[in-house]
Amino acid sequence: MYQTWEELEPVCMSCQKCGLCEGRTNLVFGVGNKNSKVLFIGEGPGEQEDLKGEPFVGRSGQLLDKMLAAVDLDRHKNIYIANIVKCRPPHNRDPLPEEQETCIEWLRNQVYLIKPKIIVCLGRIAAMKLIRPDFKITKEHGVFTEKNGVWMMATLHPAALLRNPHNKPDAFDDFIKLREKMDELGLEI
């Protein structure tokens, strides 16, 4: 386990532990306030993220930014965003279980360094990996559970909301619940 960001990031950036590294333009390490107590975790980078080297910068990232802004959160000020896998799976497919297992140590080290009070899983893949393997995103989104002293909640993935806009109000309710949990825990923004 690396003890500082300065140790972790360059080693992660040169990772070649799985086949995903072969097709990447950029490794997508993460972005945001490294002292934040709120950590958002997605499944993996898409095409735009691979090109720019930053998570959630495409259309789904724009939607995420709007939802964050609605509850006074900002990716550059008071949250941190990372992914289960750091390299784009081909054709934006779901990361395979073995790819997730290979890459999860980088995320665990990020969690260790941030020490978040709240983790928000963006979508089914992150929720199934981090909360519970049988997690049902459509039924359990917005529900907080405590795990090892960290409050965890999943919300619908922004890309899924772009495909099914009628689910946006439910996802927005999740962000309201996040804000309420932050207030309850006395987390400053």
Question: Which descriptors would you attach to this protein?
Answer:
Uracil-DNA Glycosylase, subunit E; 6 strands; alpha/beta; globular
Low-confidence stretches: none
The CATH topology: Uracil-DNA Glycosylase, subunit E
CATH architecture: 3-Layer(aba) Sandwich
Total domain modules: 1
Distance between the termini: 28 Å
What's the order of the H and E elements?
HEEHHEHEHHEEHH
Radius of gyration: 15 Å
Roughly what percent helix? 40-55%
Major β-sheet profile: 6 strands, mixed
**Can you list the strand order of the major beta sheet?**
1-3-2-4-6-5
- Per DSSP E runs of 2 or more residues, the count of β-strands stands at 6
What would you call the shape? globular
CATH superfamily descriptor: Uracil-DNA glycosylase-like domain
Count of helix runs: 8
Strand content: 5-15%
CATH class: Alpha Beta
Descriptive notes:
It is built from eight helices and six strands, in the order αββααβαβααββαα. The radius of gyration is 15 Å and the shape is globular. It has helices spanning 5-13, 47-52, 59-70, 97-114, 124-130, 137-140, 158-163, 168-184; strands at 31-32, 38-42, 80-83, 118-122, 145-147, 150-155. It has a six-stranded mixed β-sheet, sandwiched between helices. It has a single domain, classed as Uracil-DNA glycosylase-like domain (Uracil-DNA Glycosylase, subunit E), CATH 3.40.470.10. The relative contact order is 0.17. It has 189 residues and is an alpha/beta fold.
In short:
The chain has 189 residues and is α/β, with parallel strands linked by helices. It has helices at 5-13, 47-52, 59-70, 97-114, 124-130, 137-140, 158-163, 168-184, and strands spanning 31-32, 38-42, 80-83, 118-122, 145-147, 150-155.
